[in-house]
Write a structure and sequence with these properties.
Blueprint lengths: L9 E5 L5 H11 L6 H10 L2 E7 L2 E11 L2 E9 L8 H15 L4 E6 L4 H9 L3 E12 L2 E11 L5
Parallel strand pairs: 4-5
Antiparallel strand pairs: 1-2, 2-3, 3-4, 5-7, 6-7
């Protein structure tokens, strides 16, 4: 009987400037309208919570979180196409939620394309729910696509 190989261990650490070429490469391979290298650099300079998921010393995913005034906003979360469907997106999301709670965030928000069924399923699994719709938010190959705005309460008011 052949035993399936176990996934190599992964770690999540803060993103550093030297990660930007790999992060930008994953972004370009993942999206038709990717963030630029400069946008990621600006996120580092702005002091956002930027993190990478590392597998066998290679960046396999990343996430960007903005925290301000008791709220957090997930700006980007992505896993390299070669490493999808292995739970890495969920690991990154769990780390974002952990960091938001550690920052005493009351509520966390994100935008997602309504056509991104995989992401929507993960966010719903983690307790996010749709609170709004942003018309024509995303660039699309034919015009624009709306964004579903999702939110999750992290701290209940007492």
């Amino acid at each position: 009987m052949i035993m399936p190989m176990a996934e190599p261990p992964t770690t999540i650490r803060d993103m550093v400037h030297d990660d930007l070429p790999m992060v930008s490469d994953i972004e370009r391979r993942s999206y038709e309208f990717p963030w630029s290298h400069g946008v990621f650099r600006d996120c580092l300079l702005a002091g956002y919570q930027n993190m990478v998921l590392v597998r066998e010393e290679q960046v396999a995913g990343y996430a960007v979180l903005s925290v301000a005034a008791g709220e957090a906003h997930i700006l980007n979360i992505c896993v390299d196409p070669a490493y999808r469907a292995r739970g890495y997106g969920e690991k990154l999301l769990d780390e974002l939620l952990f960091r938001a709670r550690a920052a005493q965030v009351r509520q966390i928000f994100l935008e997602v394309r309504p056509s991104n069924d995989t992401a929507l399923a993960l966010y719903r699994k983690k307790g996010f729910h749709q609170v709004a719709n942003r018309p024509a938010y995303y660039q699309a190959s034919e015009g624009r696509e709306d964004a579903a705005v999702l939110a999750k309460k992290l701290v209940t008011d007492t």
